[in-house]
Write a structure and sequence with these properties.
Elements: E1 10-16, E2 24-29, E3 35-39, E4 44-48, E5 55-58, E6 65-70, E7 76-80, E8 85-89, E9 95-99, E10 107-112, E11 118-122, E12 127-131, E13 137-141, E14 149-154, E15 160-164, E16 169-173, E17 179-183, E18 191-196, E19 202-206, E20 211-215, E21 221-225, E22 233-238, E23 244-248, E24 253-257, E25 263-267, E26 275-280, E27 286-290, E28 294-300
Antiparallel strand pairs: 1-28, 2-3, 3-4, 4-5, 6-7, 7-8, 8-9, 10-11, 11-12, 12-13, 14-15, 15-16, 16-17, 18-19, 19-20, 20-21, 22-23, 23-24, 24-25, 26-27, 27-28
Length: 305
Amino acid sequence: MTQVPHVPRVTIEEYPVADGEAGPYSLATGPDGALWFTLVHGGRIGRLVPGEEATSHPLDPGCGPTVIVPGPDGALWFTEYRGHRIGRITTEGVVDAFALPAPDRGPFGIAAGPDGALWFTETAADRVGRITVDGQVTEFPLPVTGAFPSAIAAGGDGAMWFTLNQADAIGRIDGDGAVALHPLPTEGAAPVGIAAGHDGALWFTEIAAGQIGRITPDGRITEFPLPDRAGRPHAVTVDGGGTAWFTEWGANRVGAITPDGSVTAHDLPTPGSEPHGITVGPDGALWTALETGALARVAPADGPA
């Protein structure tokens, strides 16, 4: 007798936060219990308390705010992809921006490190950067060119791990700037998102290969093909139970993969909603940013994620 795998039921609710031109892209839970999100085309940072109306704070209109994360200082930090700056916004809405050493860096991913600083990728300069909470920037060159370093996350080993989208590799950089690269088994995988699991390994998305990857601190890589290889997995986060959740930007879905590699997928209610960033929200549910103008809440049908 063939066993049908159990697919957990979820409820998905969408909360409009901007018009379709503003482009919600990345989101994070702030220390104030709100969701903070970037409006990549609208040049603003938004804030949503679940159940209330969204508000937003203006930036330089053309700066292209991209990835946002909570910082170690109680503020939110974000990259300005087109402004070539690192931004900081307090929970009261006070904004600062810190210029990078040259106006051609294309900062994209950003994450808080174990050293009390923020680490970020420079897509156009083959560098990883580090910025202290008072705005001091240090850059570390990578041993490859044209690699397009993308997302970055703190690993459980005290180092920062990042994806190299055009080099088909995962990178590791320690606090002294020493870099190690781990090539992926799949050529043309184009990794984007990365997030730390609870077991010391990291999960990452392969947007061009339609796979989810997992890498251990010693560099061992496992790849999990998705049922829809054309789904274009983009961002990834890990919930409290160790399940990795990811967006399928090209398929209008949110997926989940358990530590043993079991995959489930959940269609979003609005066609063509373009899910990008994903995070665990202040209410314990999963939240994803839909570039068409909303945040979507994804939770098991019987309670929070």
